[in-house]
Amino acid sequence: MSNIGSYDERVRTFDWSLAEQELEYTAGAGLNIGWYCSDRICDKGGADKLALLWENAQGEEKRYTYDDVRVYSNAVGAVLRRLGVERGDRVCLFMDKVPELYIGVVGILKIGAIAQPLFSAFGDESLLVRLSNAETSAVLTQKKHAFKVRKILDKLPHLKHIVIVDHDGKTPLKDREVPFSLEGSKAVENLECFPTKAESPSVLHYTSGTTGMPKGVQHVHYSLISQFLTAKWVLDLQESDIYWCTADPGWVTGTSYGIIAPFSLGVTQCVLDAGFSTEAWYRFIEKNRISMWYSAPTAIRSLMKGGDEIVKKFDLSSLRHLASVGEPLNSEAVVWSERVFGRPFLDTYWQTETGCIVISNYPGMEVRPGSMGKPFPGITGTILDPSRNEPYPAPGKIGLVALKFDWPSRMRTYWRNEEAFQKKFRNNWYITGDRARVDQDGYYWFAGRDDDIINTAGHLVSPFEVESALLEHPAVAESAVVSKPDPLNLEVVKAYVTLKPGFAASKDLDLEIMNFTRKRLSPLAMPQEIEFVDSLPKTRSGKIMRRLLHAKEWGEEIGDTSTLEND
Ligand code: WTA
Q1: Could you give the CA distance from residue 159 to residue 175 in angstroms, rounded to a whole number?
Q2: Is 325 close to ligand 1, i.e. is its CB under 6 Å away?
Q3: Domain with CATH 3.30.300.30 in the chain
């Protein structure tokens, strides 16, 4: 804990150059995250240290030292270079949480290309939208997921290469496919990193917007500065830690704090490439002596459901520090974790756009269960009065969470959508899209989102994207997608649907439409409930009033609809 410092002291003396000094970076010099995540750790004597311990559902295990990460990421970089991938080209990673994903990101960054991680659970439609928007030139994927890429290949003229990362050397290859295997590839001792600089693009993460299709959040190599320091101070990552970030790198948490932060800090991290199971999770912590655990409220609520008794069956005494992100962390979960693990999950708040933790419970600071904590030192936050777009003169009122947009890992723009990026600002404040209040002591209390985006189990789903998919079903005339409260996942997707003439509502049709969206989008974006209705509430100009349906689901006052009618 010694290297963290007290929150108040850190706020008083803060400067991002603290991280620059630790990383021995000077303004204007080269900065390549891939190099920082592997070569630098080896140069500093960490070559033999375990970087990644991976386990799958079958209990199969693989281990990689920092030197392995270095040479294997070199191999990934080399194969992409050989294929002609250049600086700034988008390279998608479409795979499970396999070692190739973690090492692949490092390799892509080393050659100056842009890493675009996408969930392997995505269906062809979700994939198509993101690959065509980014004009992605290569995809790294596993044999088992390649079929989804093949299905949409005709619509992706920019996609030149599909690198099958677990190719056995025998299976016949299809159009544009390239075989690769980490273990089977020749060791690449030296790879010249592309001399990226602070502002060179690094990672492109797609996130859901309220209107329109998902937007690509454009990050740069300089993001390392804040990812490194927030991991060190908020996650309290120390050299001796065994770290477990449960997030998938398809989600920004799994990239910022599942790849970049732990590797650049040279800690040992564990990855469990398997679905959720209470027993399996506790066993994983016990077996690997996990000391720092970064997870999310839905998982914590699931563990709570498992009860206290099961916790006692395992030796979890290695746990030293716990943190959570992605959704409001209810106070019960904080209190429960303190009781059963001997320490509370500390809430952290941030977004794909912020690139790093921006508000959090700083270690050592008093925990107020239910509060997200305070802005990270060096980050200026406020609550804006939505009617004036000015900070409230006094604390206590719920308003818009806004940030001064000036820290290293902030997004630089939305991919080829500067207009949407500019819309995120009011009065020079970056508007997060969330609502909260601040108490007298500066603690932030989350109140809800300020838009229609659905947060299901920590994953943001755009109603627009689900509605677009629904419209492709032959029976669907119109649809409106809203969130519905859910005890475990916070919210789930609910769709109101009107049918085309000749179609009648039935259980079979309901299931068919659900399956249709699951396959096209993803299991999370699939509506958990479909309600067939005769008509949808609309504004005079014909726009569907999602907010009315939302209010109905949440038992809220509908309020003044005259304003909505003019939306
Ligand atoms: C929500 C995730 C309450 C919020 C890293 C935010 C939270 C969105 C918290 C970003 C939290 C994240 N308490 N809500 N601690 N953390 N959120 O872009 O609505 O996938 O704007 O990034 O998740 O989700 P994203």
Answers
A1: 11
A2: yes
A3: 454-554
Nearest CA-CA partner of 264 in 230, 302, 287, 297: 230
For ligand 1, atom 3, the nearest C-alpha belongs to 328
Which ligand 1 atom minimizes the distance to the CA of 353?
Answer: 18
Ligand 1 in reach of 139 Cβ (< 6 A): no
> Rounded to the nearest whole angstrom, what is the distance from the C-alpha of residue 352 to the centroid of ligand 1?
8
Alpha carbons 71 and 196: distance in angstroms, whole number: 19
Average pLDDT, consecutive stretches of 10 residues, N- to C-terminus, the chain (567 residues): 82 97 97 98 98 97 98 98 98 98 98 98 96 98 97 98 95 94 90 98 92 91 98 97 98 98 98 96 98 97 96 98 96 96 98 98 96 98 97 97 98 97 97 97 96 93 94 96 95 97 96 96 96 92 87 83 49
d(C-alpha 416, C-alpha 214), whole Å = 12
Q: Please state, in angstroms and rounded to a whole number, the distance separating the CA atoms of residues 317 and 274.
A: 23
Interatomic CA distance for residues 316 and 249, integer angstroms: 25
Strands 50-56 and 268-273 turn out to be parallel
The residue whose C-alpha atom lies closest to atom 10 belonging to ligand 1 is 351
Among 506, 378, 525, 405, smallest CA distance to 463 is for 525
So what's the pLDDT on residue 560?
58
CATH 3.30.300.30 assigned to 454-554: yes
Query: Is residue 347 lining ligand 1, measured as CB closer than 6 Å?
Result: yes
Query: Are the beta carbons of 160 and 113 closer than 8 angstroms?
Result: no
Residues of the chain with CATH 3.40.50.12780: 7-435
Q: Is 409 in the pocket of ligand 1 (CB under 6 A)?
A: no
319/314 Cα distance (integer angstroms):
12
Tokens of 510: 């309901």
104 lines ligand 1 (CB under 6 A): no
Cβ atoms within 10 Å of 236's Cβ, excluding its own: 20
* CA 368/CA 347 separation, integer angstroms: 10
Greatest alpha-carbon span in the chain: 71
CB-side neighbour CA atoms (13 Å) of 241: 27
Any ligand 1 atom below 6 A from CB of 253: yes
Nearest alpha carbon to residue 100 among 194, 180, 165? 165
Estimate the share of the chain in helix, then strand, then coil, as percent rounded to the nearest 5.
30, 25, 40
Q: Is 488 exposed, middle or buried (0-12, 13-18, 19+ CB in 10 A)?
A: middle
Residue whose CA is at the smallest distance from ligand 1 atom 24: 351
Which residue in this structure is represented by tokens 């569907």? 544
* pTM, 2 dp: 0.95
Would you call 429 helix, strand, or coil by DSSP? strand
Structure confidence at residue 1 (pLDDT):
45
Query: How far is the C-alpha of 214 from the C-alpha of 206, rounded, in Å?
Result: 6
Instruction: Specify the CATH class of 7-435 in words.
Output: alpha beta
